[in-house]
Amino acid sequence: MPNIESAIKRARTSENANVKNSSQTSAMRTAIKKFEDAVASGADNVDALYKEAAKAIDMAESKGLIHKNKANRDKSRLLSLIHI
């Protein structure tokens, strides 16, 4: 446990940021899995789920949770599942 006041505040801030970041990353992964499951089962709402997954990926990228290239790669892979 930190003794210095600024270190205590920083630890508290980091903990809050970690909760938000892990929540957003988890939501992104869930959106991707929902889309992949819908494609595999041949559902009708694939386009809507792709938009949702792409939005979640873009939001994670804009927050700095994933790299720009990973975001583009993930979206490309998802889009290729539709056109196969």
TrEMBL record:
- Which Gene3D superfamilies does this one have? Ribosomal protein S20
Specify the domain of life of the species encoding this protein.
Bacteria
Pfam families membership? Ribosomal_S20p
Q: Where is this region: Disordered?
A: 1-27
Q: Which InterPro entries match?
A: Ribosomal_bS20, Ribosomal_bS20_sf
Give the UniProt keywords, A-Z. Answer: Ribonucleoprotein, Ribosomal protein, RNA-binding, rRNA-binding
Extent of the signal sequence: none
Coiled-coil-forming residues are: none
> GO CC: one term?
small ribosomal subunit
GO MF annotations in UniProt: small ribosomal subunit rRNA binding; structural constituent of ribosome
Key word Ribonucleoprotein present: yes
Name the family the entry cites: Belongs to the bacterial ribosomal protein bS20 family.
Record-linked PANTHER family? 30S RIBOSOMAL PROTEIN S20, SMALL RIBOSOMAL SUBUNIT PROTEIN BS20C
As for what it does, the entry says: Binds directly to 16S ribosomal RNA.
The protein in question is named: Small ribosomal subunit protein bS20
Upper lineage is: Bacteria, Bacillati, Bacillota, Bacilli, Lactobacillales
**Gene (name only):** rpsT
